[in-house]
Amino acid sequence: MNRAAIFEQIKQKQSFLCVGLDTVKAQLPAEVLQDDDPVFSFNKAIIDATAAYAVAFKPNTAFYETEGSEGWRSLEKTVAYIKEKYPEIFIIADAKRGDIGNTSTAYARAFFDRMQVDAVTVAPYMGNDSVKPFLGFEDKWVVLLALTSNSGSADFQNTPDVNGQPLYTKVIQTASSWAGADKLMFVAGATHPAELANIRAIVPDYFLLVPGVGAQGGDLEAVCRAGLNPQCGLLVNASRSIIYASKSADFAIQAAAEASKLQQQMKVQLQLAGLL
Amino acid sequence: MNRAAIFEQIKQKQSFLCVGLDTVKAQLPAEVLQDDDPVFSFNKAIIDATAAYAVAFKPNTAFYETEGSEGWRSLEKTVAYIKEKYPEIFIIADAKRGDIGNTSTAYARAFFDRMQVDAVTVAPYMGNDSVKPFLGFEDKWVVLLALTSNSGSADFQNTPDVNGQPLYTKVIQTASSWAGADKLMFVAGATHPAELANIRAIVPDYFLLVPGVGAQGGDLEAVCRAGLNPQCGLLVNASRSIIYASKSADFAIQAAAEASKLQQQMKVQLQLAGLL
Q1: What is the pTM of this model?
Q2: What is the pLDDT of residue B218?
């Protein structure tokens, strides 16, 4: 999927919501647990309930790997379901991969050729030859970790170099020389709104994937003030606050309500920014 | 597996060889391609051929994920086979994972509880709360990326901070305050022997997992001079040079020969260091 198609969908849905499919089998409502593949059944219901409000879905591979090869199969079915029923929606495998060149190529094939998602999150620690193999696929995207939403982001991402420049801005500056805003996005946590503005100044054109709104406490309005650009430039993710809005039989209805609420807030922000 | 058991095996086998099971289906010899699960058949033959010379096996998840859930199943079968037939051998899932706390916990469960490997490679970029969830499992290990063997390692790992300290040594110093040498190892590429000595000086007691000997060109003798400690303290990995020593029907025999050659060189180094 190319950048124009993402922005088109944002305008149509008046939303830049990414729904994180962080599906933990042990936390599923009793109603789906009797199904053959409860994780997929749950995801299917969440996807149908939230597709009208979301421009992206982001399954995190960790929660599928916990169920082993069966979990990986649930993930494959989930991606195939989205692609078939909602082909306009952007799919991000939140996998945080990255390895030496031939190994990163294998990961890229796993996610782009085999699973056929649109984007993969990649960790920058191993440098250019660990990231570039993901950049060679048409209309596929790397979402590179820059400043993550967790408290541990302070340990290394904020480390200033000899010129006082923190590592996360060096990552952004270096990586933006590897690929343009049509192939590369950055992860920038909603829990750091001041740094978000800094990131936006360094890469005015790039999309930012912003986790941390919802369960992690980030503020949508602050994120928008710092991060919106003329093509929106933001995908704001919420996972647990949507998919676990209720743990009873009404989980899909409550997930839809929660996604709708965020979409309404996003619509206001898009209007304020003159993008609708 | 605890540190004493690893050292015991090193002394018994007179080896600190880790065989990397980076099994690419497209590169397998015709002899195994007709099997139901060629990746597993190949691994089984390689494991049987090299178990006498190796103290660790290290499947890299990328090459299994390229085959989707079926590949993940081949990986599970490979780990189960090693555990059943060679329970003394240390198994490292080379997965380079790392995410926010609850997500890293899911990864740790995937690898330690479900797949039951002994160790997982983890990327440090996201800091303490991304690594610590992997440290809470008895006799399980984190192998943290410090200075990797690829050329891209120069991009960020070598970035000096305001005191001139490169990031990789900050990673090692910081992480060694999170866990001792009984739970934590570091990845230090054989392609950087000078820096290996530096790392050994910072963490005299910790095991180092050293990739880059073999196809990547690292020098075993230089690695040993820089890295051996009184408990050996090294696991030196070779992947492609062993498993693809031959691409014909004699692949297992040639893999054994290649592993044996490395084991003989390691024996000499252990003797020179007075450890045998």
Answers
A1: 0.98
A2: 78
Average of per-residue pLDDT across B87-100? 98
Name the residue among B236, B239, B232 with its Cα closest to residue B220. Answer: B236
CB A47 within 8 A of CB A17: no
How much is the pLDDT for A145?
98
C-alpha distance from A117 to closest chain B C-alpha (Å): 13
Catalytic residue selected from A96, A132, A170, A267: A96
pLDDT at residue A70 in the model: 98
Q: Are B210 and B189 in contact (CB under 8 A)?
A: yes
Chain B residues in contact with A62 (beta carbon < 8 A): 97, 99, 103-104, 106-107, 110
- Interface ipTM above 0.95: yes
From the number of C-beta atoms within 10 Å of its C-beta (0-12, 13-18, 19+), residue A97 rates as buried
Q: Which amino acid is at B160?
A: P
Which domain range does residue B246 map to? 3-272
pLDDT reading at A109 higher than 80:
yes
Q: Specify the 3-state DSSP secondary structure of A208.
A: strand
Q: Which residue of A has its CA nearest to B113?
A: A66
For chain B, give the number of residues: 276
B236 and B210 in contact (C-beta within 8 Å)? Answer: yes
Least confident of A204-218, A242-256, B32-46, B133-147: A204-218
Q: What is the mean pLDDT of residues B3-21?
A: 98
User: What pLDDT does residue B77 have?
Assistant: 98
Q: Which residues of B249-275 are buried (b: 16+ CB within 10 A; e: fewer)?
A: eebbebbbbbbbebbebbbebbeeeeb
Whichever domain contains B14, its CATH number is 3.20.20.70
- For residue B93, give the nearest of B113, B70, B112, B73 by alpha carbon: B112
Q: How far is CA B129 from CA A65, A211, B132, in A?
A: 19, 16, 5
Cβ-defined contact of A160 to B161 (cutoff 8 Å): yes
CA-wise closest residue to B93 among B51, B141, B44, B59: B59
Residues 26-55 of B with CB under 8 A from A: none
Residues 6+ apart with CB under 8 A from B261: none
Say how many residues make up chain A: 276
Looking at the structure of chain B, the number of domains it has is: 1
Rounded Cα–Cα distance for residues B275 and B150 (Å): 30
pLDDT, residue B212, reads: 85
Q: How far apart are CA B75 and CA B64, in angstroms?
A: 6
Among A135, A86, A89, which residue's Cα sits nearest to residue A111? Answer: A135
Local confidence band at B97 (pLDDT 50, 70, 90 cut-offs): very high
Interatomic CA distance for residues B96 and A98, integer angstroms:
7
Active site residue B261: no
